[in-house]
Amino acid sequence: MLESEQIVFFLDTPLYCEMPELYRSADIVVLPLQEETENIAVLEAWASGKALISTRKIAKNGYAKHAENCWLTDTRDSDQLASAIEKLAENPSLRKKIGMKGRELAENMFTWEKIATKTVGFYDKITQSLK
Questions:
Q1: What count of other Cβ atoms lies within 10 Å of the Cβ of residue 117?
Q2: Of 14, 13, 44, 12, whose CA–CA distance to 29 is shortest?
Q3: Which one of 24, 37, 42, 77 has the fewest beta carbons within 10 angstroms of its own beta carbon?
Q4: Based on the structure, what is the number of domains in the chain?
Q5: In this structure, which long-range contacts are made by residues 88-91, counting pairs with CB atoms below 8 Å and at least 24 apart in sequence?
Q6: How far apart are CA 51 and CA 56, in angstroms?
Q7: Is residue 80 within 8 Å of residue 73, measured between CB atoms?
Q8: Do residues 103 and 111 touch, judged by C-beta distance below 8 A?
């Protein structure tokens, strides 16, 4: 069992300019989201190449794949969350694999060009329906 007081840090709301350094210094990013499925912090965690632990809520976005590019737990299940943290903390190769897959996802699916293309497509669809 891990000694959480030595490895776990609970943050208040950091300034946005502090986030890159926080991601760099982390081994694991834990985002136990309860409601929100589209969260910039999820994309930032993936882009950082760090292993992400979150809730199954983010799987609704269609990108999150349990044990592939993130580790998912049930919402409001502290035992599952603690178990996931322990599993990834104790398994550097799994942590690295998940982090690398998350980074690949961010690089391939969330570039400015792809987001702009999706946005233009969305607006085209709306304007076509108005005609």
A1: 11
A2: 44
A3: 24
A4: 1
A5: 88/27, 88/28, 88/51, 88/53, 89/2, 89/7, 89/27, 89/28, 90/2
A6: 15
A7: yes
A8: no
Q: Which domain holds residue 87?
A: 4-130
Predicted TM-score (pTM) of the model is 0.82
Contact 102, 70 (CB under 8 A): yes
C-alpha distances in Å from residue 62, one per residue of 10, 43, 56: 28, 13, 11
Inter-axis angle of helices 78-89 and 92-109, nearest 10: 100
Whether residue 71 contacts residue 98, with contact meaning beta carbons closer than 8 Å, is answered with yes
Look up residue 98 and give its amino acid: I
pLDDT per residue of the chain (131 residues) written in tens, 0 to 9:
555 555 677 778 888 899 989 999 999 999 998 886 668 889 999 999 999 999 999 988 889 999 999 999 999 999 999 999 999 999 999 999 999 999 999 999 988 899 899 899 999 999 998 87
CATH number at residue 126: 3.40.50.2000
